[in-house]
Design brief:
single chain, mainly beta, six-stranded mixed sheet, five-stranded antiparallel sheet, 0% helix, globular, disordered N terminus, disordered C terminus
Length: 150
């Protein structure tokens, strides 16, 4: 069972999927493609100007006997000055300030403050973050090394 994130005392902002195939502004005015930053590995980075952002995972593996019909991933977001760790024993991500559940072929909305963030996901891949604001989101340079807890 997934236990989500442990923000070290601060409760994370939790968002759920918007039942839509695209953000309200269509393809968005700004977007970043972040690849597959899976928890326990390197994170992806992005910069937000603040305001609503929309995230989706465009690829889920299917075909196993226990695969759900619709893929679901947890997206964890936190400030780059507080890198995440992944606790395998508790299946928890630390230092995440935002946790978003994304269902296959849907976007989830979240609203970070202006700043630079890391992003991890639990499953799925090809993560895309979209903004309806010109320059509202941009990609970061490099990756933040996430750590596994002992």
């Amino acid at each position: 069972m997934l236990s989500g994130c442990d923000s070290g005392g601060d409760e994370p902002q939790v968002a759920t999927s918007v039942p839509a195939t695209a953000p309200p502004c269509g393809d968005g005015l700004a977007r970043v493609e972040l690849g597959n930053p899976k928890w326990g590995g390197p994170t992806a980075e992005f910069t937000s100007k603040g305001g609503p952002l929309y995230v989706t995972a465009r690829r889920f593996e299917h075909g196993g006997p226990f695969d759900p019909a619709v893929g679901v991933t947890l997206i964890f977001v936190g400030p780059v000055d507080r890198p995440p760790t992944f606790d395998e024993q508790r299946t928890a991500v630390t230092n995440a300030s935002i946790e978003v559940t994304v269902r296959e072929k849907q976007f989830a909305a979240f609203e970070p403050s202006a700043g630079r963030y890391w992003l991890w996901n639990s499953a799925g891949g090809d993560i895309v973050v979209v903004s309806c604001q010109e320059g509202g989101v941009s990609s970061g340079v490099g990756v933040v090394a996430g750590r596994r807890s002992p």
